[in-house]
């Protein structure tokens, strides 16, 4: 099979996507998983719960791709129109599927512990010509259709149900059916250098890249991720080529290199702490617990993360983190002196090897001529040493919080690695 | 102008969207803002950094919509191909725009404080036939094109830059150009009733809805949001119709009604606390600071939020929240007794009117036959009363955290309103 034959279009259905009430995280998840298995997502399209629009989109995406993956529109309620439409589109009718009905009955009886109502039985209806895909995590089944050499798979829009169906059935089946070419990625993360400067720095190298390799710049939260994507027939050859070019790139950006893995900063810092058997606490004012969340949303955080004191009010900074009253009155809560004392206070109060502290004005209110909105102080320390940094962010509140958290984790990384200036 | 004439297609450009490295939050934001201004987003399409694909998508979306809003592909680096393509697509050539160049020079000199390099000058290149849209937040300008009765506006993909251009220029210009029909929404949030049961409960009402109104079910984090969308020519008439039907719906679901505003639970709880001048602290084990983050990411949280003790390790539960050693050894950290003591401890340690506590096993590891992954205890309390609830979630770690936080905020809401059982 050639590359063309395994091109995929993702079609998501739902009015909620077109009025912006929900963010489409399904497409990103699907794209990531498919890509890792060597499939190429060519397009992503979202349309509303409208019969004509869905029908037209199915026609159009069939012209763009060989495989069309559909999510959404399979819930039990009246705003769902996808299933009858699919029956018409594939020239068949809806019938009750006995296996699905038994599964729905089982879920209501043994898992939900609720009586089943008539409407729930409709979940067991499927277009007669489809191959039913078992949904172990919910009532709405997946459905697999083939028509004019195209494959169509429809899944519910509930993320963990869609993910189960993709992992258990769709991807394994696609892998059986298609021998894909190899797609390999190498990713590194830089900090402290802007996108343009980075581009200038690596221009000669980038221009000389062989055609199988493509470079992408992915700026995010004040840092720039660089990703080389390679496509080829022979995986081993491609891997060698990528390795050579990636090493060259790493040398060029060594000064700003954060990691040469496709890793987030929280995961990277977690690994450094876990591998060195050190513990961490955070003392968060302006980030309000967000750093603690970034660390604890990953499995195994209890290996190194002891806890956090979110000292939103000054009274908490004083009482639980032993920040001195005169420090607050002389320098203010957003100051180097305060974050240093917060760090010391967290090391003592939570008894950890490392501590991280943040204090800043996240906006939109609370700024002053002296300390405008976006002024931030961060500190990272252990028993021997405390290092600090200040920033002047110019963004909205949430982005200011995210940037502060990201830079704080990077400061901690430098402290742990002993590369802080 | 009729409705058809203000239909919008959003086209996002970038390989990073097709390999799932970033989640497309821009489209949701744009859809929300456009919708609030009476514009209807008909389709959302994402394609990669590929000339042919972008060209084809421009052709196709021109057939679907009157207005095509494009984001992405305008950065200063070599992976960006959108600008030359737009010049070709609209039959013109790239020229340096003096105003944009002056703005870029100003940013480098006065804001970034960095020397400007040759590559940055390219940011000032625009297709000669376009109307330049000022980007006050960054170097890449927006561009407005008209062709064959269609409007095309291109913006950078950096969220806060795109948002500035949309708010300052695109939406005001569209409002001037088009007299749109009215689009109004009414939204309510329910808790404690499944989607199917809700649908059964309101079926007769829903079936009798006039054709201008449409109901959508938006289940999220264990709760169901219901949204009525109305479209019509006369805003006042539509508003009256919506009000009547919304009141009827509210009566039908009164038992499960959380709010009749399009509000998130954190915002709702924040308002309740602010309006009653009460303070809150959280004592978070399994949610790891996520509740504190949900509350502090909204402006003005310091009005009521004092702080949090994220007691991830048991030692912190004991030392800072005064949870008794024998409670932990007899009942375990994930128990009703522990969350009650955590709540009391937070009320005392942080000196607040209310406190919220969570403890659970978020997975994927850490479960036991007795307390499987997903077992959660939450408590909400003040000096007079502490109420608790337990859950058995069956999802992945992040969703378990989000569900726990959401249900904890709902428990606090019930306590504040005095409607807890």
Plain-language structure description:
The structure is a homodimer of 421-residue chains. Chain A is an alpha/beta fold. Chain A folds into three domains: 3-177, MoaB/Mog-like domain (Molybdenum Cofactor Biosythetic Enzyme, Chain A), CATH 3.40.980.10; 182-259, 2-Layer Sandwich (Alpha-Beta Plaits), CATH 3.30.70; 265-417, CinA-like (Maf protein). Helices cover 41% and strands 25% of the residues of chain A. Chain A contains 16 helices and 17 strands. Chain A has helices at residues 15-18, 26-36, 51-64, 82-89, 98-112, 118-121, 159-177, 195-201, 203-207, 235-252, 265-275, 290-296, 314-321, 325-331, 336-349, 397-417; strands spanning 7-13, 40-47, 67-71, 94-96, 125-127, 131-133, 142-147, 150-155, 182-191, 213-220, 223-232, 257-259, 280-284, 305-310, 354-360, 375-381, 386-392. In chain A, the strands form four sheets. Chain A has a six-stranded mixed β-sheet, sandwiched between helices. Chain A has a five-stranded mixed β-sheet with strand order 14-13-15-16-17, with helices on both faces. In chain A, helix 2 (26-36) packs parallel to helix 7. Chain A starts with 6 loop residues before the first strand and ends with a helix. The mean pLDDT of chain A is 92. At the A-B interface, helix 1, helix 2, strand 2, helix 3 and helix 6 of A face helix 1, helix 2, strand 2, helix 3 and helix 6 of B.
